Amino acid sequence: MSDPTRPIRTAVVIPAAGRGVRLGPGTPKALRTLGGTPMLVHAVRAMAASRAVSHIVVVAPSDGATEVDRLLHEYPLADRTELVVVPGGQTRQESVRLGLAALPEGIDVVLVHDAARPLVPVDTVDAVIAAVRAGAPAVVPALPLADTVKQVEPQPQGTPEPVVGTPERSLLRAVQTPQGFDLATLRKAHDTVVEGEGATDDAGLAERLGVPVVVVPGHEEAFKVTRPLDLVLAEAVLARRRATDGYV
Questions:
Q1: Cα–Cα distance for residue pair 23/194, rounded to 1 Å
Q2: Which sequence spans correspond to the domains of the chain?
Q3: According to UniProt, where does the site described as Transition state stabilizer lie (predicted)?
Q4: CA–CA gap between residue 244 and residue 221 (Å, rounded)
Q5: Burial of 232 per CB tally in 10 Å (0-12, 13-18, 19+)
Q6: Contact 107, 10 (CB under 8 A)
Q7: Which of 18, 113, 145, 197 has a 20 to 30 Å separation from 87 between CA atoms?
Q8: What whole-number distance in Å separates Cα of residue 202 and Cα of residue 128?
Q9: In contact, 128 and 52? CB cutoff 8 Å
Q10: C-alpha–C-alpha distance, residues 39 and 184, integer Å
Protein backbone atom coordinates (compact mmCIF):
# COMPACT_ATOMS: atom_id res chain seq x y z
CA MET A 1 0.00 0.00 0.00
CA SER A 2 1.42 3.38 -1.01
CA ASP A 3 2.20 6.01 1.60
CA PRO A 4 0.25 9.21 0.83
CA THR A 5 2.76 11.27 2.83
CA ARG A 6 5.75 10.16 0.73
CA PRO A 7 6.77 12.57 -2.06
CA ILE A 8 6.00 11.32 -5.56
CA ARG A 9 9.26 10.56 -7.35
CA THR A 10 9.70 10.84 -11.10
CA ALA A 11 12.36 9.23 -13.31
CA VAL A 12 13.11 9.33 -17.02
CA VAL A 13 14.28 6.56 -19.35
CA ILE A 14 15.97 7.76 -22.55
CA PRO A 15 16.53 4.97 -25.10
CA ALA A 16 19.55 6.03 -27.14
CA ALA A 17 20.81 2.74 -28.55
CA GLY A 18 19.63 3.30 -32.13
CA ARG A 19 21.93 4.04 -35.06
CA GLY A 20 19.74 6.58 -36.87
CA VAL A 21 20.50 5.49 -40.42
CA ARG A 22 18.16 8.09 -41.97
CA LEU A 23 20.53 10.85 -40.86
CA GLY A 24 23.26 9.18 -42.87
CA PRO A 25 26.28 7.06 -41.97
CA GLY A 26 28.64 7.86 -39.15
CA THR A 27 28.11 8.64 -35.49
CA PRO A 28 24.93 7.21 -33.87
CA LYS A 29 22.07 9.69 -34.15
CA ALA A 30 21.91 10.56 -30.45
CA LEU A 31 25.59 11.53 -30.48
CA ARG A 32 25.38 13.81 -33.50
CA THR A 33 26.22 17.35 -32.47
CA LEU A 34 23.67 20.15 -32.33
CA GLY A 35 25.22 23.57 -31.83
CA GLY A 36 28.48 21.87 -30.90
CA THR A 37 26.88 19.66 -28.21
CA PRO A 38 25.68 16.05 -28.69
CA MET A 39 21.92 15.74 -29.17
CA LEU A 40 21.77 13.27 -26.30
CA VAL A 41 23.18 15.89 -23.94
CA HIS A 42 20.46 18.33 -25.02
CA ALA A 43 17.80 15.64 -24.46
CA VAL A 44 19.13 14.82 -20.98
CA ARG A 45 19.26 18.51 -20.08
CA ALA A 46 15.68 18.97 -21.29
CA MET A 47 14.48 16.28 -18.88
CA ALA A 48 16.67 17.48 -16.01
CA ALA A 49 15.26 21.00 -16.43
CA SER A 50 12.11 19.75 -14.69
CA ARG A 51 12.50 20.05 -10.93
CA ALA A 52 10.19 17.03 -10.62
CA VAL A 53 12.74 14.70 -12.25
CA SER A 54 15.15 13.10 -9.78
CA HIS A 55 16.62 10.23 -11.81
CA ILE A 56 17.54 9.74 -15.48
CA VAL A 57 18.53 6.43 -17.07
CA VAL A 58 20.15 6.64 -20.50
CA VAL A 59 20.11 3.37 -22.41
CA ALA A 60 23.18 3.42 -24.66
CA PRO A 61 24.36 1.15 -27.49
CA SER A 62 25.48 -2.13 -25.92
CA ASP A 63 28.98 -1.70 -27.32
CA GLY A 64 29.29 1.96 -26.34
CA ALA A 65 27.81 2.39 -22.86
CA THR A 66 31.17 3.21 -21.27
CA GLU A 67 31.87 5.92 -23.84
CA VAL A 68 28.38 7.41 -23.48
CA ASP A 69 28.72 7.44 -19.70
CA ARG A 70 32.06 9.25 -19.99
CA LEU A 71 30.59 11.75 -22.46
CA LEU A 72 27.55 12.60 -20.34
CA HIS A 73 29.63 13.15 -17.24
CA GLU A 74 31.51 15.85 -19.13
CA TYR A 75 28.21 17.79 -18.97
CA PRO A 76 27.22 17.60 -15.27
CA LEU A 77 23.63 18.12 -14.16
CA ALA A 78 22.28 19.81 -11.05
CA ASP A 79 22.81 17.81 -7.87
CA ARG A 80 19.09 17.03 -7.58
CA THR A 81 19.23 14.77 -10.66
CA GLU A 82 21.01 11.41 -10.68
CA LEU A 83 22.21 10.11 -14.05
CA VAL A 84 22.87 6.45 -14.88
CA VAL A 85 23.93 4.87 -18.19
CA VAL A 86 23.13 1.22 -18.98
CA PRO A 87 23.70 -0.94 -22.08
CA GLY A 88 20.72 -1.32 -24.39
CA GLY A 89 19.20 -4.21 -26.30
CA GLN A 90 18.62 -5.10 -29.92
CA THR A 91 15.27 -3.29 -30.15
CA ARG A 92 13.79 -0.14 -28.68
CA GLN A 93 11.31 -2.11 -26.59
CA GLU A 94 14.09 -4.24 -25.15
CA SER A 95 16.14 -1.12 -24.40
CA VAL A 96 13.26 0.57 -22.57
CA ARG A 97 12.71 -2.61 -20.57
CA LEU A 98 16.39 -2.57 -19.55
CA GLY A 99 16.07 1.08 -18.60
CA LEU A 100 13.06 0.33 -16.41
CA ALA A 101 14.99 -2.47 -14.71
CA ALA A 102 17.72 0.03 -13.78
CA LEU A 103 15.39 2.39 -11.91
CA PRO A 104 15.90 2.66 -8.16
CA GLU A 105 13.27 1.76 -5.57
CA GLY A 106 10.65 4.37 -4.78
CA ILE A 107 9.96 5.68 -8.29
CA ASP A 108 6.25 6.32 -8.94
CA VAL A 109 6.15 8.10 -12.30
CA VAL A 110 8.34 7.29 -15.29
CA LEU A 111 8.79 9.20 -18.51
CA VAL A 112 10.15 7.68 -21.71
CA HIS A 113 11.80 10.23 -23.96
CA ASP A 114 13.33 9.98 -27.44
CA ALA A 115 16.97 11.03 -27.50
CA ALA A 116 16.22 12.41 -30.97
CA ARG A 117 13.89 15.06 -29.49
CA PRO A 118 16.59 17.31 -27.99
CA LEU A 119 14.66 20.57 -27.70
CA VAL A 120 11.43 19.69 -25.88
CA PRO A 121 10.51 22.62 -23.57
CA VAL A 122 10.35 22.02 -19.82
CA ASP A 123 6.70 23.12 -19.74
CA THR A 124 5.82 20.10 -21.87
CA VAL A 125 7.76 17.78 -19.56
CA ASP A 126 6.02 19.23 -16.52
CA ALA A 127 2.57 18.96 -18.14
CA VAL A 128 3.07 15.23 -18.76
CA ILE A 129 4.28 14.65 -15.19
CA ALA A 130 1.38 16.63 -13.73
CA ALA A 131 -1.19 14.58 -15.66
CA VAL A 132 0.26 11.28 -14.42
CA ARG A 133 0.45 12.57 -10.86
CA ALA A 134 -3.19 13.62 -11.16
CA GLY A 135 -4.17 10.02 -11.82
CA ALA A 136 -3.78 9.29 -15.55
CA PRO A 137 -1.93 5.95 -15.99
CA ALA A 138 -0.57 6.92 -19.43
CA VAL A 139 -0.03 10.38 -20.93
CA VAL A 140 1.33 11.59 -24.26
CA PRO A 141 2.05 15.12 -25.50
CA ALA A 142 0.69 15.69 -28.98
CA LEU A 143 -0.14 18.32 -31.59
CA PRO A 144 -3.06 18.65 -34.04
CA LEU A 145 -2.13 17.73 -37.60
CA ALA A 146 -1.57 20.50 -40.12
CA ASP A 147 -1.76 18.23 -43.19
CA THR A 148 -4.53 16.07 -44.56
CA VAL A 149 -3.75 12.38 -44.03
CA LYS A 150 -4.54 9.63 -46.54
CA GLN A 151 -4.79 5.93 -45.78
CA VAL A 152 -3.33 3.93 -48.66
CA GLU A 153 -2.89 0.40 -49.86
CA PRO A 154 0.90 -0.08 -49.63
CA GLN A 155 2.76 -0.84 -52.87
CA PRO A 156 6.43 -1.50 -53.75
CA GLN A 157 8.58 1.60 -53.39
CA GLY A 158 8.10 4.02 -56.28
CA THR A 159 4.75 2.54 -57.33
CA PRO A 160 1.62 4.73 -57.01
CA GLU A 161 -0.42 3.72 -53.96
CA PRO A 162 -4.24 3.64 -54.13
CA VAL A 163 -6.00 5.80 -51.53
CA VAL A 164 -8.48 3.79 -49.46
CA GLY A 165 -9.58 6.43 -46.98
CA THR A 166 -9.20 9.94 -45.58
CA PRO A 167 -9.34 10.03 -41.77
CA GLU A 168 -11.00 13.04 -40.12
CA ARG A 169 -8.04 15.31 -39.43
CA SER A 170 -9.65 17.02 -36.43
CA LEU A 171 -9.66 13.67 -34.60
CA LEU A 172 -5.95 12.98 -35.15
CA ARG A 173 -2.90 14.06 -33.18
CA ALA A 174 0.84 13.79 -33.88
CA VAL A 175 2.34 12.23 -30.76
CA GLN A 176 5.64 13.35 -29.23
CA THR A 177 7.68 12.50 -26.16
CA PRO A 178 8.26 12.40 -23.25
CA GLN A 179 5.43 9.96 -22.67
CA GLY A 180 4.51 9.52 -19.02
CA PHE A 181 3.26 6.53 -17.07
CA ASP A 182 2.51 5.14 -13.69
CA LEU A 183 5.58 2.92 -13.33
CA ALA A 184 3.64 -0.25 -12.54
CA THR A 185 1.51 0.27 -15.65
CA LEU A 186 4.48 0.63 -18.00
CA ARG A 187 6.32 -2.32 -16.50
CA LYS A 188 3.24 -4.50 -16.96
CA ALA A 189 2.90 -3.33 -20.57
CA HIS A 190 6.52 -4.19 -21.37
CA ASP A 191 6.28 -7.55 -19.61
CA THR A 192 3.00 -8.48 -21.33
CA VAL A 193 2.95 -7.15 -24.90
CA VAL A 194 4.99 -9.22 -27.32
CA GLU A 195 7.51 -7.40 -29.51
CA GLY A 196 6.10 -6.58 -32.93
CA GLU A 197 2.40 -6.72 -32.01
CA GLY A 198 1.72 -3.39 -33.71
CA ALA A 199 2.66 -0.89 -30.99
CA THR A 200 5.09 1.76 -32.24
CA ASP A 201 5.54 3.61 -28.95
CA ASP A 202 5.22 2.99 -25.23
CA ALA A 203 1.70 4.40 -25.08
CA GLY A 204 0.77 1.89 -27.77
CA LEU A 205 1.92 -0.91 -25.47
CA ALA A 206 -0.33 0.44 -22.74
CA GLU A 207 -3.23 0.66 -25.19
CA ARG A 208 -2.76 -3.02 -26.04
CA LEU A 209 -3.52 -3.78 -22.39
CA GLY A 210 -6.66 -1.62 -22.46
CA VAL A 211 -5.05 1.11 -20.36
CA PRO A 212 -6.59 4.55 -21.04
CA VAL A 213 -4.14 7.02 -22.57
CA VAL A 214 -4.73 10.77 -22.43
CA VAL A 215 -3.23 13.59 -24.48
CA VAL A 216 -1.79 16.87 -23.19
CA PRO A 217 -0.66 19.71 -25.48
CA GLY A 218 2.70 19.11 -27.12
CA HIS A 219 5.04 21.74 -28.55
CA GLU A 220 6.27 22.49 -32.05
CA GLU A 221 9.89 22.51 -30.82
CA ALA A 222 9.59 18.95 -29.49
CA PHE A 223 10.03 17.58 -33.03
CA LYS A 224 12.11 14.50 -33.75
CA VAL A 225 15.44 14.89 -35.53
CA THR A 226 15.28 12.06 -38.03
CA ARG A 227 16.50 13.45 -41.37
CA PRO A 228 19.14 16.01 -42.38
CA LEU A 229 16.52 18.75 -42.84
CA ASP A 230 15.36 18.21 -39.23
CA LEU A 231 18.92 18.87 -38.09
CA VAL A 232 18.95 22.18 -39.98
CA LEU A 233 15.70 23.20 -38.24
CA ALA A 234 17.04 22.12 -34.84
CA GLU A 235 20.18 24.24 -35.35
CA ALA A 236 17.97 27.23 -36.15
CA VAL A 237 15.81 26.73 -33.05
CA LEU A 238 18.90 26.33 -30.88
CA ALA A 239 20.49 29.48 -32.33
CA ARG A 240 17.32 31.46 -31.59
CA ARG A 241 17.20 30.14 -28.01
CA ARG A 242 20.84 31.03 -27.43
CA ALA A 243 20.29 34.53 -28.80
CA THR A 244 17.09 35.28 -26.88
CA ASP A 245 16.87 32.94 -23.87
CA GLY A 246 20.48 32.52 -22.79
CA TYR A 247 20.26 28.80 -23.59
CA VAL A 248 23.61 27.00 -23.14
A1: 29
A2: 10-142+174-244
A3: 22, 29
A4: 15
A5: exposed
A6: yes
A7: 197
A8: 14
A9: no
A10: 29
DSSP for 150-192 reads -EE---STTS---EEE---GGG-EEE-S-EEEEHHHHHHHHHH
Distance of CA 101 to the CA centre of its chain: 17
Q: Strand 53-60 vs strand 82-87: parallel, antiparallel, or unpaired?
A: parallel
Q: Is the pLDDT of residue 154 over 60?
A: yes
What span, in angstroms and rounded, lies between the C-alpha atoms of 56 and 130? 18
Reported as a single tens digit per residue, the pLDDT across 189-219 is 999 987 766 678 999 999 999 999 999 999 9
Query: What 3-state DSSP class applies to 55?
Result: strand
Q: Which residues of 136-161 are buried (b: 16+ CB within 10 A; e: fewer)?
A: bbbbbbbbeeeeeeeeeeeeeeeeee
- Looking at the chain, how many residues does it have? 248
